Amino acid sequence: MKSIIQVENLRKSYGQHEAIKGISFSVEQGTLFAFLGANGAGKSTTIEILCTLLKKSSGTININSYMLDSSHDNAEIRKSIGVVFQQSLLDEHLTVYENIIHRGKMYNLSKQELIDNYQFVSSYLNLNDIEKQKYGTLSGGQKRRADIAKALIHRPTLLFLDEPTTGLDPQTRQFVWQTIKQLQEETNMTVFLTTHYMEEAAMADKVIVLKQGEIVAEGTPDALKTQYAYDQLALVFYDFTEGANWLQENNINYTEKQNIFTIRVQSTLHALALLKQIEPLIASFEVIKGTMDDVFIHIMEQEV
Ligand SMILES: Nc1ncnc2c1ncn2[C@@H]1O[C@H](COP(=O)(O)OP(=O)(O)OP(=O)(O)O)[C@@H](O)[C@H]1O
Q: Which pTM does this prediction carry?
């Protein structure tokens, strides 16, 4: 698979403070890439540099075969990317349609391209019900739909989304998320996303975790879960004391809360082996799969 973003030894300082400390990574074309990190880790700084809005201190960045900061290449990079920031840049007094068409004209699209592209974004983002409404009068979720439509009007090959679903109600979050996934899968667009929602990161093809300006973990959600999260087996015994004794006699570590015994297991198969042995004693059980939340918490607890 071809890399659409290649970052080598990127550094960025604000005065004395080094916010990005020499990070390197690549993003494959057509994939969904999630960039995670606690507040202040350097996610926005990195995105702003990649989007040509902020100057890097050093390092090399190649986007869509263009070299960032070399003569004419930043203009080419801007043409091939769409960006949705946490703060919207649309005009409150214009309608959604006017805002998006205005944006399209900035890319010098022909009249026919504007019509075709507007239809394309409208079909993905259901703009019909809001296109005649002034942007300033929209709800938070409707604004987000318009923001994403604006970022897509020139049909970019790479879409940057900085926390696209923060502050949205669950239903709108789901809509925005499904739309992003659909666009990525149906149009082979690459999506570069920052998010605080771990269940969203779990759907990415690749995840990078940033901590204090350094990459501290990188891989597919499954690989990260295998490395940093673990499955648990929750058990309820017919007889509390008998169950506790069995676990102690078999040297199995557990925690107990409200009569539920929780045991850390290496895998679902390990849980099954244990269940076969203990079956006569248990009233009920549940295998709890490791999540991306566990991954994030585990990584954040580690020293850099
Ligand atoms: N303009 C600036 N001047 C000085 N320091 C800055 C500036 N912008 C960001 N920083 C600092 O750089 C570090 C990285 O900030 P950045 O906004 O990139 O983090 P982030 O991971 O996007 O955080 P969040 O999740 O809160 O948006 C922080 O310590 C921040 O205080």
A: 0.84
